[in-house]
């Protein structure tokens, strides 16, 4: 995918950022509920409260969740939150370039091997959206 296509994909996939990336995203809530209704309700309430804290903006919180996924190696497999967190970051105004820079930064602190898997999954996410 060329750099131009990356930008087009990001521009086409973005809508207005949510005030609360969990409580305002009904599609996310439906996905959590489809895993298990009690799990979905619990995640929505608890994560919604955390995402509602006022001092850190939604885009930064979304990028932090991706960094946590790198450390926890939560980018592949059934129920993996990585794709949801990438989409959440894009929704909040992050670009693919910013996410890639975050993954490079995480190489230093989490390890190159952990970030490598995330780069591969990030490519899969963008390639599936073409």
From TrEMBL:
Q: Which residues form a coiled coil?
A: none
Task: Name the Gene Ontology molecular function terms of this record.
Answer: peroxiredoxin activity
Instruction: Give start and end of each Carboxymuconolactone decarboxylase-like domain.
Output: 37-118
User: InterPro entries of this UniProt entry?
Assistant: 4CMD/NDH-1_regulator (IPR052512), AhpD-like (IPR029032), CMD-like (IPR003779)
- Domain of life here? Bacteria
Q: Which SUPFAM superfamilies match?
A: AhpD-like (SSF69118)
Q: Name one Pfam family in it.
A: CMD
Q: Which PANTHER family match?
A: 4-CARBOXYMUCONOLACTONE DECARBOXYLASE FAMILY PROTEIN, CARBOXYMUCONOLACTONE DECARBOXYLASE-LIKE DOMAIN-CONTAINING PROTEIN
The name under which this protein is listed is Carboxymuconolactone decarboxylase family protein
Name the lineage: Bacteria, Bacillati, Cyanobacteriota, Cyanophyceae, Nostocales
């Amino acid at each position: 995918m060329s750099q131009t296509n990356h930008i087009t994909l990001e521009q086409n996939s973005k809508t207005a950022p949510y005030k609360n990336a969990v409580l305002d995203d009904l599609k996310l809530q439906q996905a959590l509920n489809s895993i298990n209704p009690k799990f979905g309700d619990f995640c929505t309430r608890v994560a919604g409260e955390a995402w509602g804290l006022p001092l850190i903006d939604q885009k930064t919180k979304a990028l932090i969740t991706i960094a946590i996924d790198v450390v926890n190696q939560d980018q592949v497999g059934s129920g993996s939150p990585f794709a949801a967190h990438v989409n959440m970051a894009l929704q909040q105004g992050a670009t693919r370039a910013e996410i890639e820079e975050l993954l490079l930064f995480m190489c230093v602190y989490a390890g190159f091997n952990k970030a490598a898997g995330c780069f591969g999954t990030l490519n899969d996410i963008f390639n599936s959206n073409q």
